Amino acid sequence: MPLSAERTRSPHVVLRALALLRPERLKAGSLLGAGALVAFLQVAEPLLFGKAVNGLTTGANPMRYVALWCAISVTVFAAGVVIALLADRMTHRRRLIAMSTYVEHLLALPPAFHTQARSGRLMRIMISGCEGLFNLWLPLLRDQITNLGILILLLPIAIMTNWRLGLVLVVLMLVYSVVNLIVMRHTATGQARVEDRFTDISGNLGDLFGNVTVLQSFLAVPGEMGNVRRSLHDLLHAQYPVLNWWAVSAVLTRGASSIAIVSVFGFGAALIERGLATIGDVVSFVGFATLMIARLETVTGFIVNVAQRLPALRQFFDVLDQQSHITEADDAVPLAVAEGRVTFDNVSFRYPTGSGAVHDLDFEVAPGETVAIVGPTGSGKSTALGLFQRAWDPEKGRILVDGQDISGVTLASLRAATGVVFQEAGLFNRSIAENIAMGNPDATMEQIEDAARIAGAWDFIMRKPDGFATAVGDRGAGLSGGERQRIAIARALLKNAPILLLDEATSALDVATEARLQESLERLRQGRTTFVIAHRLSTVRAADRIVVLDQGRIVEQGGFDELLAAGGAFAKLAQDGGLSTPAANDDAGARAAA
Ligand SMILES: Nc1ncnc2c1ncn2[C@@H]1O[C@H](COP(=O)(O)OP(=O)(O)OP(=O)(O)O)[C@@H](O)[C@H]1O
Ligand SMILES: [Mg+2]
Questions:
Q1: Beta bridge partners of 421
Q2: DSSP calls for 233-259
Q3: Which of 90-99, 346-355, 477-486 ranks highest by mean pLDDT?
Q4: Nearest ligand by distance to the CA of 422
Q5: What residues contact residue 57 under an 8 Å CB cut-off, 6+ apart?
Q6: Would you state the pLDDT for residue 7?
Q7: Contacts of 187 (CB under 8 A, 6+ apart)
Q8: Which of 60, 345, 566, 590 could join 55 via S-S bond, C-beta 3.0 to 4.6 A?
Q9: Tens of pLDDT along 231-271?
Q10: Rounded distance, CA 140 to CA 346, Å?
Q11: Ligand 2 centroid distance, CA of 369 (Å)
Q12: How many angstroms separate the alpha carbon of residue 395 from the centre of ligand 2?
């Protein structure tokens, strides 16, 4: 899945990464300034060395230069320590801030994004993106500015010292830069391809880890492992050409310093013979050449490293650029639920993929009323409730709560007003108490226990060795399906919201447990507007009204007995077992089946 149609250009990616330091621009600026100063001092060192040697050969006193040289060395050393310390702290801090920005952004994106994005992939993009930022910021602030400064200052100073020898350095630097530019051009696209593959593999691995039991029971492990190995093998082959170019660059770099020193010595000796250079000049220039090549090496290493991480950074920013299509209006106001009247006003919606839709949903739920939404599987029941929670926005029509269009209210207020039990319980790998407390983080332990009692979860929680402190495993894997549902119900109860959405909240419970829970839910529904999606007649019968969906359209609505008597879609659904009739003493079910 391409995260964005248009890919950002490399210089923009780097600028954007640097812009993330903006909140600490004063500190970052000071570090860069200090780096530049150190550069200036370091270039002076070979110059002083040359002057000291000239002093020795002409019999003048070289101590002045040696003392100055010493002072500079101490300053450079001390400045280096301070810069490193500050730069380290700052980049560690900014990296964690970038991470939390990314997480916050992802957690705010709507289900429309998350149903397509793979969590393993998003995780990998976060980790390598933050590493990329760190590896750009830290070397830049710590020493690359100094190195760049040295390279910029070195040539003019060298040329002023002796322009003939200076030209040798200019030629060397040009050749070096051109070779490395060529390498970089050849590796950029290759590395982007590698990064894309890596991210895809991570997405796939996340999927595998989340479904280990399925893989095992379907004997799919060898097959999937074969796929994983193949992808990793392909990845390696995509990496090889890039590595070839890097090897060329590494060898040339290593050879460069010998070539430089030999050239300066050879050319310098010829110049001395003609009286066009002093011994001190040649000494200075050997220093210049060594300094230049060493700095070119680290600067190139840095640039190659950043270039290598650019694709990861680009992916990171692409995720940050994902816009939520579910947006709050600029003038959004908090939803004020006075009574809890919900109106679906001619609502139509189609999933972007084209599969699945609801058409012209038009009904009203009176305050405190319980409406059951029934219909065959895939008829759009969950979709209708998803629209109410603004997981998606309707293409046509409006949904109103007490006359307020939900697209015009703040998302937080809409969410605060609804207690939801999803079709999938959605538990976190934390304790039972923590899972329930998600309904209301301020709840006392007593309130949590009450909610568990009403949700019929008390008995099984007490049977757990650690009670409420029992950890439930990934997505609640350590619990039975019915136990998970009851915890999800307790969580929704604790939220105490005026509107309740129950999507097959009791589907995994046995009939006796469900019947007990019905009484509690009955009490709970008092004074709350409730939507219930259910496949069981007993649950549906408790509703004040029933809305029957088929292929995304309302085909019938009315009271339970009224609909059964009408002999329409609902009666047929009940009869065909589309609404299950598990209880022998469920006389309505018996009537329907008769
Ligand atoms: N995220 C999605 N993207 C695309 N299509 C979807 C998505 N979610 C659901 N659908 C499709 O929309 C249709 C309605 O789905 P929905 O989940 O609303 O059915 P449902 O009535 O709740 O069914 P069930 O009783 O099985 O839960 C189905 O055809 C389904 O395949
Ligand atoms: Mg559903």
A1: 502
A2: HHHHHHHHHHHHHHHHHHHHHHHHHHH
A3: 90-99
A4: 2
A5: 278, 279, 280
A6: 54
A7: 242, 245, 246, 304, 307, 308
A8: 60
A9: 999 999 999 998 888 888 878 877 888 888 899 999 999 99
A10: 58
A11: 21
A12: 20
With a 6 Å cutoff on the Cβ, whether 356 touches ligand 1 is: yes
In the reported structure, the alpha carbon of residue 377 is separated from the centroid of ligand 2 by a whole-number distance in angstroms of 7
* CA 356–ligand 1 middle distance (angstroms): 6
* Residue 441, SS3 per DSSP: coil
In sequence order, which ranges of 427-510 are alpha helices (DSSP H)? 432-437, 445-454, 458-463, 481-495
Ligand 1 binding pocket mutation candidate from 351, 392, 507 (most atoms within 8 A of CB)? 351
Residues 254/248, Cβ–Cβ less than 8 Å = no
Tokens of 127: 């980790």
| Rounded Cα distance, 502 and 520, in Å | 14
Strand, helix or coil for residue 218: coil
Residue 397 parent element (H or E): strand 396-401
CB of 100 closer than 6 angstroms to any ligand 1 atom: no
Identity at 451, one-letter amino acid code: A
Contact between 415 and 409 under an 8 Å Cβ cutoff? The reply is no
Phi, psi of 431 (to 5 degrees): -75, 165
Please tell me whether residue 536 adopts helix, strand or coil conformation: strand
pLDDT digits (tens, 9 = 90+) for 543-582: 899 999 999 999 999 999 999 888 888 888 888 766 765 4
Rounded to the nearest angstrom, the gap between the alpha carbon of residue 585 and the centroid of all alpha carbons in its chain is 52
- The finding on whether 381 has its CB within 6 A of some atom of ligand 1 is yes
- The whole-number average pLDDT for the span 296-319 is 89
**Three-state secondary structure of 348-391:** EEECCCCCCEEEEEEEEECCCCEEEEECCCCCCHHHHHHHHCCC
| Interatomic CA distance for residues 533 and 547, integer angstroms | 10
Q: Which amino acid is at 438?
A: M
Q: Tell me if 202 CB under 6 Å of ligand 1.
A: no
Specify the residue with its C-alpha closest to ligand 1, atom 9: 356
Measured CA to CA in angstroms, residue 528 lies from 20, 396, 406, 417, 493 at distances of: 46, 27, 18, 10, 11
Residues comprising the chain, all counted: 594
Q: How far apart are CA 83 and CA 32, in angstroms?
A: 9
Closest listed residue to residue 389, CA positions, set 272, 492, 269, 240 = 492
Contacts 24+ apart (CB under 8 A), 234-243: 234/197, 235/194, 235/197, 235/198, 235/201, 238/190, 238/193, 238/194, 238/197, 239/190, 239/194, 241/190, 242/187, 242/190, 242/191, 242/194
Alpha-carbon distance of 445 to 356, in angstroms, equals: 42
Full set of structural domains in the chain with CATH: 10-320 (1.20.1560.10), 366-379+418-588 (3.40.50.300)
Q: Which of 355, 501, 507, 532 to mutate to test the pocket of ligand 1 (most atoms within 8 A of CB)?
A: 355
Strand 396-401 to 342-350 pairing: antiparallel
